[in-house]
Amino acid sequence: GGPRRLLLVSNSTLHGGGYLGHCQQHIQSFLGEKVKRVLFVPYALHDRDAYARTAREKFESLGYGLDSIHESCDPVEAVRKSEAIFIGGGNTFRLLKALYDNSLIQEIRKRVLEDGIPYMGSSAGTNVATVSINTTNDMPIVYPPSLQALGLVPFNINPHYLDPDVKSTHMGETREERIRQYHEEPNTPPVLGLREGAMLLVEGDKATLQGVTGARLFLRGKKPTEHEPGTDFSFLLIDSNLQNL
């Protein structure tokens, strides 16, 4: 057992660097020396073999073995035996559908929330760690049975959060407007806009913003607020109905 431990990364690749390059020190510090092998979930991309090769190469370079869940004949058993779980990015709808199709939602929740194994997500893998995938940027290319996700934290995240470009003539909705529309619906939880290069470390009841960029926090009925790396976001873990305060 042990408290939940999550590393929720906005993006897998930062401009100018390689796969997970910008957060590799965070990964090593997060997984530590006890973890020897990581269970990788490549369901968000179509070519799972190629995705697993990329992830395996990176994690082996950091000193960890990597097993890809798609190579297992029993995905549920793979989760039950795992020491740590990493869910990579891609299309969030495709990822969540595969988690439901393989009966992994409750299994992953149990391993992370009850058994205390480390969970790392990047991009879509961060989306599915939250309450729901309602605030993803992806197109619904497939139809999961529900938009409810793993619920490892009681709020939502918007990875790859983009600030409006003041010089742009683009007339489409900004990310901020889309999140505001989400919050026009009743009982919607907070949304943390994680810019590329940012990540959230959750250890038990403590949540800390890490990385090189900041984040923007949206609470229902409130003006969004700006936050720098190092910000303590533990209050977001207390209650999913913060917007009613």
UniProtKB/TrEMBL annotation:
It catalyses: Dipeptidase E catalyzes the hydrolysis of dipeptides Asp-|-Xaa. It does not act on peptides with N-terminal Glu, Asn or Gln, nor does it cleave isoaspartyl peptides. The lineage of its organism: Eukaryota, Metazoa, Chordata, Craniata, Vertebrata. It comes from Chordeiles acutipennis (Lesser nighthawk). It is found in: Cytoplasm. This is dipeptidase E. GO terms for cellular component: cytoplasm. SUPFAM superfamilies: Class I glutamine amidotransferase-like (SSF52317). Its main location: cytoplasm. It holds the Pfam family Peptidase_S51. GO terms for biological process: proteolysis.
